[in-house]
Design brief:
Blueprint: E1 2-9, H1 13-23, E2 26-29, E3 33-35, E4 40-47, E5 52-58, H2 62-66, E6 71-78, H3 81-90, E7 94-102, E8 108-115, E9 118-124
Parallel strand pairs: 1-5, 6-9
Antiparallel strand pairs: 1-6, 2-4, 3-4, 4-5, 7-8, 8-9
């Protein structure tokens, strides 16, 4: 597993990009896309140091935002998403969402799991 990005919940992606840009140097921004599989709007920012922040707005993060929680998940890129899901479930993780194509990542498959330290997203490298 290789770290890919941190997922941040927000009410308005464009406003959050302005907020982040006052703190960090944003060197790249993906277009904002709607992913019907996740029922969410998404955008990916790359900061000057290479850190990536995925902004998520919509139904999946409404409950978090009502509690003023913006941290959503850590994402790790993996060579084989199914093998990694099996490994993590055997280690005690709980599968939240089965693998499905993600529009933001050129339809590479993603899956979400609950682990001891929160939610992680797995992003298939292929």
């Amino acid at each position: 597993m290789k770290f890919h990005h941190v997922g941040v919940a927000c009410k308005n992606i464009d406003e959050e990009i302005v907020n982040i840009s006052t703190i960090h140097q944003v060197i790249e921004r993906s277009p904002t896309v709607f992913d019907k599989e996740q029922n969410a709007e998404l955008a990916l920012l790359t900061l000057a140091d290479g850190t990536r922040i995925e902004l998520i707005s919509g139904k999946p993060v409404e409950t978090l935002l009502k509690k003023n929680i913006t941290y959503y998940h850590l994402c790790f890129e993996v060579d084989d998403i199914n093998v990694e899901i099996d490994r993590l479930v055997n280690a005690g993780a709980f599968l939240i969402a089965e693998p499905k194509p993600a529009v933001l990542f050129n339809n590479r498959k993603v899956a979400f799991l609950n682990v001891s330290y929160g939610i992680i997203e797995l992003l298939n490298s292929k």
